[in-house]
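Lab notes, practical 5.
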Amino acid sequence: MTPIFRFDGIYTPVVTPYMPDGSVNWDALADVIDYLIGAGVHGLISGGSTGENYAQTVAERVEIAQFTKMQTKGRVPLVVGTGAMLTEESIALAVAARGMGAEAILLASPPYSVPTDRENALNALAIDKAAGLPIMLYNYPHRTGTMMGEEFLDRVGRSRNFCGIKESSGDINRVHLLARDYSHIQMGCGMDDQALEFFAWGAPFWVCGGSNFLPKEHIALYNACVVEGNFAKGRRIMSAMMPLMRVLEQGGKFIQTIKYGVTLNGIPAEDVRAPLKGLNKDDKRALEQVVRVLKTTIAGIEAEG
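Output from the prediction step:
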């Protein structure tokens, strides 16, 4: 079965810049969107966990997605996140995505309720029916508590709208399973430190939070592995990126670190909503050093051709 939509390349789950009072900084969000598109990312995701969707109302998420859609001006596809505890809220987000002309939706398992594969599939199919759009599944059991198992994949696979899956379980055996048995659903990397392995198994896209502030470097790895098929070069780029992966994942400060990285590029995005708090001076210094070395190293690899 041929997918009705292809997810190819680097898809950035866009951060949500805030003012110090917690309101959305619309000017900064516009700057982030323009910066990412100018750098060459292949698609944007609004309302993902990197965008702090858990700290936003449905109305806010819709407003942010609509703004993002207008700001892209059709230059890249927009995927709208629909993850929520309540099916009704996910459907409202899906309907809004269709109404604003989004190209696809991102669909995660509802957190905390821990549905069975059958229940999870019926939930996903209800959202699919409401949206009528291409879907990128989001399997992240560490956040949702639920693995999108084989029964789930078999059930949702009957709808052609389920075109891709962002696989964030961290289990490399899932990569093998998806590549072998579910090739009709495009497998995308959702575990940054496994990007090279995903590409080796044929993944055509990568959803990476770090591309919010290092888009060209993430694109360089995608180009080396997927476009050029040069995995020797890809290993060198991946090796240069590994210190970044460690900094992003250490201490549960992923979103704060991403947002400080955006701020380092001159776009104010450091503020986060509660319950999160910003980085301390040591964390900031560590990121600054990693970014400096990473950029220099990958620029050198790219210059060699």
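Observations recorded by the TA: Strands lie at 9-13, 43-46, 78-81, 104-108, 135-139, 162-167, 186-189, 205-207. The domain at 9-230 is CATH 3.20.20.70 (TIM Barrel).
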